[in-house]
Design brief:
By secondary structure, the protein is an alpha+beta fold. 29% of the residues lie in helices and 37% in strands. The protein is built from 5 helices and 11 strands; from the N terminus they run E-E-E-H-E-E-H-E-H-E-E-H-E-E-H-E. It has a 5-stranded antiparallel beta sheet, sandwiched between helices. Strands 9-10-8-11 form a 4-stranded antiparallel beta sheet, with helices on one face. The protein has a two-stranded antiparallel sheet with strand order 1-7. Strand 2 and strand 3 (22-30) form a beta hairpin. The mean pLDDT is 92.
Length: 198
Amino acid sequence: MQTDTYQTIKNISEGLYKEKGSKFLAFAHPVQTLTEVKPILDHYRKIYHDARHVCYAYVLGPEGDEFRANDDGEPSGTAGRPIHGQIQSFGLTNVLVVVIRYFGGILLGTGGLVVAYKAATVEALSAAEIIEKTVDLEFTFRFEFPFMNDVMKLVKTLDVQVLEQNFEMDCTMTLRIRKNDAERLEVALSKVETLTFI
């Protein structure tokens, strides 16, 4: 059976790393979608408008297959990639880590920058509460009112979450269920007369 769980963080967490006068402030955020990323980045750019760099990386999706790393003006590969690498090392997804750098007057060199961005990210992720979530699927279907009892019995016996329901002559319902249980739900519902998936 394929795994239908993934690890992410529960709340925002912070980390701090200092090196030769430079300060690296790290913030780890739980995020579900790409649309959540930009407002968070805008927020930090506004608050820390006097900072030299606002670098970040994110990983999205149950498989962690949507990701991006950004150096924000630091030498290529010295900021975003180390941040991304640590999110992967922790085995996390649906996470955005933003690291803000205040320059301390002494150049750290590419090796020093990699170490600093990595260390700041580790601080933030180590402070986070790591949680396991399930990969869920949603089903919307339509059925005729006389078959409502059959549908409601199935909903009670299967471990599903009802997201929406509308009971008129033509009833509709949207359910959320764990990915590994989805086939069982489909088979059970397909036995209800007049039921069609939308």
